[in-house]
Amino acid sequence: MKKKTTGHTTIKDVAKFAGVSKSTVSRYINGKIDAISPEKVKNIKKAIAELNYRPSKMAQGLKIKKSKLIGFVVADITNPFSVAAFRGVEEVCDQYGYSIMVCNTDNSPEKEREMLLKLEAHSVEGLILNATGENKDLLNAFSEQHIPTILIDRKLPDLKLDTVTTDNRRITKEILQKIYSKGYTDVALFTEPISSISPRAERAAVYQEMASAQNVNGLVRMYEIDVKNKEQLKAALRSFYKDMPEQKKAILALNGLIMLKIISCMEELGLHIPQDIGIAGFDDTEWYKLIGPGITTIAQPSHDMGRTAMERVLKRIEGDKGAPQTIELEAEVIMRKSL
């Protein structure tokens, strides 16, 4: 048989030719042949020779030597959550002699795909991902190559991957209860586009349930905002403030980045916290207590989430073959005077 020389042979081609699964070919490439029958080994060798298959850089790196490199992909590097989580990952990496390659996707599935391919080419030993919700085929490919992949903050229920997150539904309900207990009758939710991002969807679902029961007239006010579009945000704030001005108004900001933008735009609009609009949100930072009257926030265990995710990577690298785990860390409400 004439050898294939196009240079585009994939692991799938080899598996099909050899009559085995892609994961079996992957194990062979990475030198894990003890669990493969001699007949299958023979067929895989023949397929590789006939198809002129060359393993990817990642597969070669794993077989020859360890890179001691961990990929950390964040959805938005400017979000306070990302910074705190990175510090947690970094602490564990430093302790065990690993380096980190940090990639920022700007919540773009296309950019996320590009970053994942770059990490593959750099032979990362593990991946921690704050996912956009797309590119599941690539994440499956990482699993097939035995690259431990841990999701942080955002879930992908369709994939069997370890996930480190927080108890979004419980903590959102708790902060909304505190808002309503302060006498607010018109509470709005401000969020970046929800899309398929699980924490936003979970928090928004709780808001919708509670607003329909406790807001005046059961009114649900949910504003999906492009945080790069200041005029859109200012228009939404103006609209919310002017509609039914007799009601006591508050905003729940769904993450730290949109909280910062809201505070800035309220100042430009001459709106005061909490006299005009009360405000609360996610992702507590040290300087929230220094802004105006001090901002009520949900303190997510972002740093500990980073540490826990990296610890899971290490366990998988060390050979833990157990079923994927979803680890939920507890958040807490920090009450200040913005309500």
UniProtKB/TrEMBL annotation:
Residues 10-54 form the HTH cro/C1-type domain. PROSITE patterns: DNA_LIGASE_A3 (PS50160), HTH_CROC1 (PS50943), HTH_LACI_1 (PS00356), HTH_LACI_2 (PS50932). Residues 41-105 form the ATP-dependent DNA ligase family profile domain. GO terms for molecular function: ATP binding; DNA ligase (ATP) activity; DNA-binding transcription factor activity; transcription cis-regulatory region binding. Residues 9-64 form the HTH lacI-type domain. The keyword Transcription regulation applies. One of its GO terms (biological process) is DNA recombination. It holds the Pfam family Peripla_BP_3. SMART domains: HTH_LACI (SM00354). Keywords: DNA-binding, Transcription, Transcription regulation. InterPro entries: Cro/C1-type_HTH, DNA_ligase_ATP-dep_cent, HTH_LacI, LacI/GalR-like_sensor, Lambda_DNA-bd_dom_sf, Peripla_BP_I. This is Pectin utilization transcriptional regulator KdgR. It comes from Bacillus inaquosorum. The gene is kdgR.
